[in-house]
Amino acid sequence: MHHDLERFFNPRSIAVIGASQDLITISGQPLHHLVSHHYAGRLYPVNPKYQEILGVKCYASIEALPETPDLALILINSSRAAEMLRACGKKGVRFAIVFSSGYSEVGGRGIEMQRELAAVAAEFDMGIIGPNCQGMLNAAGNVYAGFGSVFFTAYDAGAVSMVSQSGGFGFSVMNLASKDGGVHFRQMVTTGNEIGVSTLDFIEHFIDDAGTEVIAVYIEGLKDAHRLLKVGRRALAQKKPILAWKVGNSVQGARAAASHTANLGGAMALYQAAFRQSGIIQVEDIQDVVDYSRAFRCGKLPKGNRVAIITVSGGAGILMTDECVARGMQVPQLSAETTEKLRAIVPAFGSIQNPVDVTAAIFNDLSLIRRTLQAVLDDPNVDAIAMINASLQGELADNIAIEITAIAAQTDKPIFLAWSARDELARAAYARLDALKIPHYKSPVRCGRALAALSSYAASLRREELRLEETVPVCFVPALKTQLVVKRYDWSEHFAKQALADYGIGVTREILVSTAAAAVEAARTLGYPVVLKVQSPDIPHKTEARAVRLGVDSDTAVALAFDEIMRNAQAYQADARIEGVLVQEMVAGGIETILGVTNDPLFGPAVMFGLGGIFAEVLHDVSFRLAPVTYSVALEMIDEIKGSAVLKGARGAAPADIDALAGAIVRVSAMAVDLQDHLAELDINPLFVLPKGQGVKAGDALLKPKN
Amino acid sequence: MHHDLERFFNPRSIAVIGASQDLITISGQPLHHLVSHHYAGRLYPVNPKYQEILGVKCYASIEALPETPDLALILINSSRAAEMLRACGKKGVRFAIVFSSGYSEVGGRGIEMQRELAAVAAEFDMGIIGPNCQGMLNAAGNVYAGFGSVFFTAYDAGAVSMVSQSGGFGFSVMNLASKDGGVHFRQMVTTGNEIGVSTLDFIEHFIDDAGTEVIAVYIEGLKDAHRLLKVGRRALAQKKPILAWKVGNSVQGARAAASHTANLGGAMALYQAAFRQSGIIQVEDIQDVVDYSRAFRCGKLPKGNRVAIITVSGGAGILMTDECVARGMQVPQLSAETTEKLRAIVPAFGSIQNPVDVTAAIFNDLSLIRRTLQAVLDDPNVDAIAMINASLQGELADNIAIEITAIAAQTDKPIFLAWSARDELARAAYARLDALKIPHYKSPVRCGRALAALSSYAASLRREELRLEETVPVCFVPALKTQLVVKRYDWSEHFAKQALADYGIGVTREILVSTAAAAVEAARTLGYPVVLKVQSPDIPHKTEARAVRLGVDSDTAVALAFDEIMRNAQAYQADARIEGVLVQEMVAGGIETILGVTNDPLFGPAVMFGLGGIFAEVLHDVSFRLAPVTYSVALEMIDEIKGSAVLKGARGAAPADIDALAGAIVRVSAMAVDLQDHLAELDINPLFVLPKGQGVKAGDALLKPKN
């Protein structure tokens, strides 16, 4: 879908198909809103029942229109919408918003009708928005092309543009953010069932739209989710922040998959991976949209995550520290030099440690603010400042704002303010801050949260720079693809591990045998003790079939174990295809982890990493990334799990070979990309991570080809 | 401290000591605020410099006052505050607020001066508030006895009373909640360094104060934290909700303790335990105070945690579901009967599942709302309703509010509304809701969060009822106390476990021996294989000393192991006091957990439970409760840890003996109470939880007496 959406948001003419003289109904509202908000283009209501509506000439049909409108609003019953859309197509209309409901959301006939709509749009290469949506509002161009309560009000144009899959709620967000939060929107569109122009298409448009500074998006689910990473990274490259609100975590149905990786990789895990990999900022409430938009407006990005807190109230300093630390920032010690400077400035009953408490003494000496701010800004350990002014108001507030703005104008470190005075009591002060785009918040919690969002975005930019310098891993093993096409059943351990070895991933030394004598010979070659396991695509649960023996330590024992395993396997499933018995080295001293691939129908291949056993399965302490991942991202994945301390040598253990582990993650991700047309799921469980310098070894593996 | 604080909040007369004619300064403000807000009692400024201030007669000294004031405000320099307090004491003044700074917060001389203040207050049995605080504001009685920006404004009186340890920030909360949030406060006080009347004293007062319906508290740290549980439970018994904002999580210093329990039991863990055990609701921002206060005003408590969601916008329904589920509520299936009823009401393109989507069809048929609400309310699977009205406004909004209030008046199930219309566009509708105390919120997230707070409070009430019906475990083992007084060093495993056995907690079968021959005999008695460990109060880390042998399985091996252990122990520490070698059964098939006691200097004894090893130590997946705990609370502790599935039989394992485990937690808590004057720390690590019906066994234990 590559329509120029600039024309959609700024149509020179609009046809309103099914317009009604009953201006309060859904079909009556759009024309009313366009007229009352002074739409500057040409309007063509279409309805054979009327001569005119609101003094605008009404046409009997689309064919009868005197020109081809840039945009058509389709407001008629779903049963006739396709017919109207076709007429629009014939007329050469480029964009149509279908407001009508009664499509896939009702099932049955609705699904067919929706397919028909999509087919018509494709036939005429029309950009279709909806169906089942509430339209578009371009505040910057006075285009109020939709219905709903919020359309009755006029909106100031700002620099935030938003696309929402929910109509009613999406417009509520814009309304509250703009009217109560003072954050103004530029272009706002709802996409409903989204059969044509998609959420990501609109985001691409906003990235290119010079007037948009911040992009907001409300997502229920993306049908073209595989594009999310690329689109997000393009926005990151343009330094245009995307605030994403993703809902639907609790309603998604459970999936039944063979591997842990696929079971744990629910939609939300992959959305979050894509968000993280492309610097998209997650929001969780309307207030976040407001607060973060203000944060990004400041135009400054912290160089690191170290924040100095300056407060006039000790209690709020503690609160701000909590909030910053909880959200991944550091509240570092100030340098000795700064502390010395502060000793001369801050009263004895204040605090010259971070958080710096200048106390209510500012009532007596205003210059305290400026001198403290300057000293702290000059500290090389400080990347950003959060200052708390409690409820200071009136003239005092104004004078403090003068001090702050004077300093802020001369630094590239962000200064954020928590200032609880109500608007009417600090109007002059707030106006000074707003003029310099200095973000200020009523609560220290909101302030800390917003600063952390900015800081996290800055960190994403730094990570992205690092990533772009790295080599993206690429592997080709063409022979495997051929095998995967042929062997479409679950691959047993030995063959799955041979595939891993093909991609350079360490595996246990092992030999597949079909006689007891060969088993003994294999065990001698590998060295005692060994492990014996049956190999059969029909017996994925080898232990359950009593077809695994650990720590077998003599020739006699191996021969006995071989016979027993074969007997048990046959008893377990008489017609199982037995490939043989795998004789394998016993791995000692490794930490058990799990590394896997899920090939999501929407996102494509993703990699999962976690500690083995309960950590992944019970605690869900795992990290996901969309493939491919570079080395630095693999390290992030390892760091991200709560149990990562175990790999670094917690509880007196030797540190594990994290370097080799990261290498394995990178290779598995390259394998996932190489095999994305053929591989459904892969679990390496356990992947033994040996002590530093000794590498990793896949202890067992499960590989599921695509059907 | 048992002062009648009613008199403090409603003094008949107030002395303002150190009052200044410079009305903008800290010492000038209080008299100004009292006068300008029409304080109805008698005012006595005290300052030898003036004849009068603001037309009020000024006195040269406290002695010169014509009567004993009920309350004194002390606004003079810290160096002279004690002297003034003494004069107040001699005059018979019952309450004094010391505003002055320069006490413990500056250290050194300040600490001494603070002690002096406390001594004077004690001598005259005066209720002292502060020092280093911003005073009190009783909106219900027009007593504005403090300083700061917020005192320049008048406040409507409401039903929320608050005590805050932070002055500036505490008043900011009141100001924003009242003016922007519409939640009005009754009595508000700040306690600063809190050397006299404490936060908990004020909470006790608010519990008894008939005009207070909701109590809010901002806590940095309680010096009388041991009272928190009792005070919280008294509030719970009176059904008076406490909203607690506890800060200072990230700044608390790390403690170095011998046991994991004490290391993990930082202040915040114990505060949260006390909150949970007494139904205190934690808040995290100003908006929570506003939102939850509104929730509690509704006067209805859900009977369970099952919420039905009704929405006019599908998208917001998903969002609300996410929020409710994330906060521990259920969004259950509606009964077949309800679904049938809804099928006849809700349009085909809506949803008759929970969340129920009535769609924008309400524009055409308003009765949809009433009929849907009634059908869902009648469902026995539903305990509360969250309804989402998007941005509906104007006359339509008013008509919908009429429908909702008519239904709400006739049900005892709470109905909460997410309604995003701005105040000025739905004034009549909101007024109708407010008149019936129906909580409404601008965002579905806030609405879900507030309903979950109410639901969680109702659950606390139910839990408390259950607890009150249970037997509180009590154990007395007087002999142990005598031993603990004598043996003040760390107890070695065997003696620690004997103490556990005294309280009826299962331990491994074991025999302490001092010769190799006795070891062999012991092993035969216990049955092979056995474990051998050195026992010495000087060797807490037995493995490090190479003085542990596992799985010893023959007479010869036992004798050899005995000699080796003794040799290694002596090599490890030549002068170690060796109590002998412990011969112990090998426990098989149990799940390793950790159960411990920390005897906190502020809170008293608390119990900790978690899974063993990395779960507790690396992931900090543990639960705490203040002792004693009853059986139902012990079960909660087990359920609360993320790894609890392991005990219930995750990954195909047999379910563990949870009943016996809960019993052990109860007994350990009784032990903690019995020994609270003598015991500092206790770790049972591991505590083996055997399969169902087989009990628990302490595998090792560490007991640290109080010094």
Task: Supply the key terms.
29 strands, 6-stranded antiparallel sheet, 707 residues, 38% helix, 7-stranded mixed sheet, alpha/beta, flat, homodimer
Q: What would you say this structure looks like, in words?
A:
Two copies of one chain form a homodimer. The first copy, chain A, has 707 residues and is of the alpha/beta class. In chain A, 38% of the residues lie in helices and 20% in strands. Chain A contains 24 helices and 29 strands. Chain A has a seven-stranded mixed beta sheet with strand order 9-8-11-10-12-13-14, sandwiched between helices. In chain A, strands 24, 25, 26, 27, 28 and 29 form a six-stranded antiparallel beta sheet that branches. In chain A, strands 2-1-5-6-7 form a five-stranded parallel beta sheet, sandwiched between helices. In chain A, helix 2 links the parallel strand 1 (13-17) and strand 2. In chain A, helix 5 (167-179) crosses helix 10, helix 13 runs parallel beside helix 14 (394-408) and helix 22 crosses helix 24.
Residue-averaged pLDDT of chain A, rounded? Answer: 93
Query: How many DSSP-defined strands of chain A?
Result: 29
| Percent range for β-strand residues of chain A | 15-25%
Poorly predicted regions of chain A are none
Main sheet specs of chain A: 7 strands, mixed
Q: Radius of gyration of chain A over alpha carbons?
A: 31 Å
**Secondary-structure content class of chain A:** alpha/beta
Q: Biggest sheet of chain A, strands in spatial order? A: 9-8-11-10-12-13-14
Name the shape of chain A in a single word: flat
